Amino acid sequence: MSLSRSPSPNKGGGWSSPGLTTNFDNLSGRSTPRKAYGEIQMNGAVGSNDVSWTTAKARSDRVNGYPSFETRHDGFFTRHARRMSRGLPSFVRGGEKEKLGRGRWYSSNDSKTMRFLGFLGRSMWRMRLRLLVLLSCILALVVFYVTPMHRVYRRASLLGGGNNFVIILAANQGGGVMEWKGPREWAIERDSVKNKKKYAKKWGYNLEIVDMSTKKRYAHEWRESWEKVDTIRNCMRKYPHAQWFWWLDLNTFVMEPAYSLQKHVFNNLAGNTYRDINIYNPLHITHPINNSQLDATSLSAVGDGKASSIDLIIPQDCAGFNLGSFFIRRSTWTDRLLDIWWDPVGYEQKHMEWEHKEQDALEHLYINQPWIRSHTAFIPQRKINSFPMGACGENGEDKRIHYKEADRDFVVNMAGCEWGRDCWGEMYNFRELSNKLNRTPWEKFKDGISDRVKAMQKKPEKNEGKS
Asked: In which band, very low, low, confident or very high, does the pLDDT at 161 lie, cut at 50, 70 and 90?
């Protein structure tokens, strides 16, 4: 049988490859191509030079078998590379596996260190999801509390909401004209300003430091001491997107900078304030007003009872309203109040009678104007305006007014310290107390070691004194 139709280069067909051209090509299809057993040699080769099926199978068996390992290229670098590779850990896959720890990472040296690393690696792989969550939390803490990113978050109106608040701080009271300012007065102002800056920066609030120096700016030469109302109006123009404005006198100090205004007051405004002045009424104001011509809201002791209608938040001390620390909200009602509050007619007629200036003027408006009561709320004094000992009583035992360290009051106001008390001493003591109460764990640890060292140093001195 010839391969005449194949594209063979040889004449008569066929192939030059020994595996394709065999000795059985000339046989007819009726005879078997199988040779007798004697025609095949003992080594599996056919007598002729052609490759038989038995020879090819024998060669294939040698290739697919498992011959013994023979080292090749046994040079210097190959020997050292092989020696280094024996000490490296390997991963068993397929083939022969151990009964224990199948497919696991192991070291050929089987040292304690490598076993420990293997155990650690397997444990981490099992807890990979938990570790991923833990690392994500740590990254979030670093981003939002270590880097300045948390300030951006707290300041954004849609996130932290810090941009909705403005702290107004009255500085340079009198400007050295109404009273002489010495080193202590300047030190009080420096500490107060630094305290407000730190707090505003922490929570992303706006801070407006107002120079209250006495100047000839108004028609009456002494009306500069009444400019609190005018200052609030100017701040509302300067910060058109802010909603709440917090006025603070210079002699105030934020004792707990970890308290945000949102969490401390505004997240639960209805619960932190009260509308009925009869709950605490040192001025003995009749409330509500008895007038049949008024609407139901004005006749109610709590107005409409909604927190959204509160536009003015005032604390009360033992003598009545206290404007050393109060909140006022931007609204149409507030614009109307500021216009009447700043009316020069009332000032010209009552400035000799109203010793506390704008504070007495606001009390007069609250008593005589029913529309003011429906939008005014009161807040417990110790919530935003605690007094030190000596203010509103020498003993300082009024739980509604005086500062309590155990309760961690938010703000302390050294009101009236210029009248017979030491303003600088009170400011210094409260500043040091605030630093002590707000120490970090690391600072507490260092202070504890320092206190123990000092105590150990004092014992030998006592023993020497006794001897």
From this structure: confident
